[in-house]
Design brief:
Among the domains are: 175 residues, no CATH class; 162 residues. Helix 11 packs antiparallel against helix 12. It is built from 18 helices and 11 strands. Strands 4, 5, 6, 7, 8, 9, 10 and 11 form an 8-stranded antiparallel β-sheet that branches. It is flat, with a radius of gyration of 28 Å. Keywords: Cell membrane, Hydrolase, Membrane, Protease, Transmembrane, Transmembrane helix. One of its GO terms (cellular component) is plasma membrane.
């Protein structure tokens, strides 16, 4: 007993006894991190806001704790690695800053946030050297989970969950029909909404899987297999959960089944799936209990690290170079943010041959969102055949934070509007087409088109690339968003109405230019 206590005390003392070289290196690292956190505080504030306020990313609040634990597992072996300033890491840091600048110019927050995290990672080899960075390789890589990601996969996960659910419903002998993400059964109409897509479960499972794969396995094939299981299992499990809700609702009703579903999914189901995955992987764990997390001898014996570590720097060069590059990146982005193209004081929806303006009176109120737009127009056109088409137009003098035409929640499907995404429709090169549904049920088709300079597209990515080119070259150009939409039913086919209106409009690009009162003829 006494010997055991002494051994424990010795290990503890060795863990906290930081060598002089490491003390100086950690001080430099703290200064570098403090400088970067101050300069790029907006990105860290935005990430922290998502960690705290979005249930999809609540698990990220544990990531800093996990990283600290991973580092502690490497002590005191880590102290035996040499520490030095490594000049080539300035190039790595410069690449991260360039990525941040490009993300800021493109207006993609996820890129700037990823770059902000990568900067902290790049500071480790810069301030501590390549061998120390090698010893911290996995904790550094795990910092990538600080970046909120996953929302992009929501539509795909909705469709996959709906398909799994309806297949299981049919197997369980319950009559059902599927229409996009809507499933109709005798108990009522069910929607696989964004909150039911399973994205929360999937992104949390990825973070958990990466940690377990590293801690429990040594063989890369076993790690890959375990990670594949952590991707497939939550997707399938979410489909089973959704099926359970639909099946139970046939007997107890939708309201009761929905309430039970959230309790079970939040407190029981998630933990059960994790336990099942661990149980499946348990027999394949190949890391010895108490095995070292850092192979110091292997790191010291690597020839490539020996060749690299000779390129040292001074603290003044490292910190000075970091500050200069960071301020240049911020200055470039700030100059682009100040670009605002002139917009007319007033715009109107134009006349369209064979069509006339009528009162806007949708069966279920529909109004697209265009946050930060300088002008918004919403009106309804009708023709002699009784077809009706709704037209929404937004004009922006610039694109940036709070004013992105292709941003999340912008356009035809604003959040909490009563409308839900139902399914994709065949799109064209200049329009992104989708079918929406509201309670009633009321369905409508919406075709979204963006315009900037000579670019007319239905792709949000293509628009962002056009905006990026303008900001990169410091050009002032307006951005436009046009949404043509028509209600389905009530004696009208939405597709036919939209096709007739499109034909009467002529080319979309010049039509949008006339509304915005700009001349893009030389750019087309």
């Amino acid at each position: 007993m006494v010997g055991g206590e002494a051994d424990s005390l010795t290990i503890s003392t060795q863990s906290v006894a930081v060598p002089e070289a490491w003390r100086a290196g950690l001080l430099r690292l703290a200064l570098a991190w403090g400088l970067l956190l101050a300069i790029f505080h907006a990105d860290w504030q935005a990430m922290a806001h998502q960690w705290w306020d979005s249930s999809t990313y609540h698990h990220i609040l544990l990531v800093p704790v996990i990283i600290g634990w991973l580092v502690s597992q490497r002590l005191p072996a880590l102290w035996s690695l040499p520490v030095s300033l490594w000049r080539p890491a300035l190039a790595l840091l410069g690449a991260c800053l360039l990525l941040w600048a490009l993300g800021a110019l493109a207006g993609v927050a996820q890129v700037t946030q990823a770059a902000a995290v990568a900067m902290l990672m790049a500071c480790v080899p810069l301030m501590l050297g390549v061998r120390a960075a090698a010893g911290l390789a996995f904790p550094l890589a795990y910092m990538g989970f600080l970046v909120p990601f996953g929302d992009e996969a929501v539509p795909l996960l909705q469709m996959v969950t709906a398909r799994i659910t309806v297949a299981l419903v049919h197997i369980s002998a319950v009559p059902a029909q599927i229409d996009g993400v809507f499933i109709s059964t005798p108990a009522g109409l069910f929607e696989v909404a964004e909150a039911c897509s399973g994205v929360k479960f999937l992104v949390a499972m990825l973070a958990f899987g990466a940690l377990a794969a590293h801690v429990c396995f040594l063989d890369w094939r076993r790690r890959a297999g375990f990670m594949a299981l952590c991707v497939v299992a939550p997707v399938l499990a979410n489909g089973v959960r959704a099926w359970g809700t639909v099946y139970v609702a046939q007997y107890v009703g939708r309201a009761v089944a929905g309430g039970v579903d959230h309790i079970i999914y939040g407190w029981v189901f998630f933990a059960s799936v994790i336990a099942g995955i661990l149980a499946l992987g348990w027999r394949y764990f190949d890391r010895p209990v108490g095995g070292a997390m850092v192979d110091v001898d292997a790191i010291m014996a690597r020839p490539v690290l020996a060749r690299w570590e000779g390129k040292s720097s001074s603290p003044r060069q490292a910190l000075g170079g970091l500050a200069v590059m960071a301020l240049l990146a911020q200055g470039w982005a700030l100059a682009a943010d100040r670009l605002v193209a002139p917009v007319p004081a007033h715009i109107d929806l134009p006349e369209v041959a064979g069509w006339h303006r009528v009162d806007y009176s949708p069966r279920h109120w529909w109004e697209p969102r265009a946050g930060g737009a300088d002008h918004r127009l919403l009106g309804r056109y009708a023709n002699a055949q009784g077809q009706q088409v709704d037209v929404f137009f937004a004009l922006y003098g610039a694109q940036g934070v709070g004013r992105k035409a292709s941003g999340f929640g912008e356009g035809a499907l604003p959040p909490e509007s009563g409308w839900s995404w139902q399914s994709p429709e065949p799109s064209t090169p200049d329009s992104h087409v989708e079918r929406l549904q509201a309670d009633g049920p009321v369905e409508r088709i919406a075709a979204t088109t963006y315009r900037s300079g000579g670019v007319t597209t239905g792709s949000g990515l293509r628009l962002r690339m056009a905006n990026f080119a303008d900001r990169l070259l410091l050009r002032r150009r307006v951005t436009m968003m046009l949404i043509l939409s028509a209600e389905d039913g009530e004696g009208q086919q939405a597709k036919a109405a939209l096709a007739a209106f499109r034909e009467a409009m002529g080319p979309l690009g010049p039509w949008m230019d006339r509304v915005a009162q700009v001349d893009n003829t030389q750019k087309d």
